[in-house]
Please model this.
Amino acid sequence: MTRTVYVNGEFLPEDQAKISIFDRAFLMSDGVYEVTSVLDGKLIAFDGHLKRLERSLSELEIRNPLTEDEWLSIHRQLVEANGITDGLVYLQVTRGAPGDRDFAWPDPETCPPTVVLFTQNKPGLAESPAAKIGMKVISIPDIRWGRRDIKTVQLLYPSMGKMMAKKAGADDAWLVEDGLVTEGTSNNAYIVKGNQIITRQLSNDILHGITRAAVLTLAREAQMEVVERPFTIAEAQQADEAFISSASAFVMPVVEIDGAALGDGKPGKVSARMREIYLDEMRKTAI
Ligand code: PLP
Model:
């Protein structure tokens, strides 16, 4: 089925959607994005994603071209047009297409941002078999730039990291800087030790995950102790459990790190519980 996508004010069949070759995102990765999950036809944590979009744009001095109501309406229209029950809505805003290549930013008065949205259909997204088996991760050096708090479309290294993991027979890579885990290629990383859930504190070193924020709130409500500090791969390998979080994977257990099985090599109870609590709460608050 041909998808309906959104490009700069128009809803179009995907094969009729066009972007200029001079678009700054194509030439310079000069753009930001967001990914929102859809469960039962409703948007998960939508407000959080819009707030982070606003922040990413303002850090890069790109004007937010749409109002909150407009963003919501476009998301809903795409979910409807593409018959999405479970899936994802991907949005991208770039600094626009100035009609030539230049390092200097174009005048925002004459070069409006480019806006693209599309859906991905993922039937049974929340019933992923991977959640029952758990993920294997490898560690790789974190050589990304210093503003990982901005959700830019510069995804080459995370994509290389996924390929390194795949070649090593693993599912994903955890990134390590100065001996400490920053995050996963496209998710936040956690370990569990006793009653403590440990995850790196927010800074410019990691993306401020919307799922992370909800998971930590829900963990505290469930009487878990949340400790926001970095950890090493060696500490993670000795932990009771580990997991990752992201808008598309929700909470996903990690069962192996650099070839070392955690505990009995099966998804841990805390990870499974946090996934359940998170999905329950998100379904309740979906819009
Ligand atoms: N960290 C990175 C590098 C990511 O790319 C993502 C999501 O794409 C996350 C963390 C998780 O963020 P969220 O929970 O908002 O999806």
Q: What stands out?
A: Residues 183, 186-188, 207, 209-212, 245-247 surround pyridoxal-5'-phosphate (CB under 6 Å). The chain has eight helices and 15 strands. The helical segments are 24-28, 46-59, 68-81, 130-133, 156-167, 210-221, 233-238, 269-285.
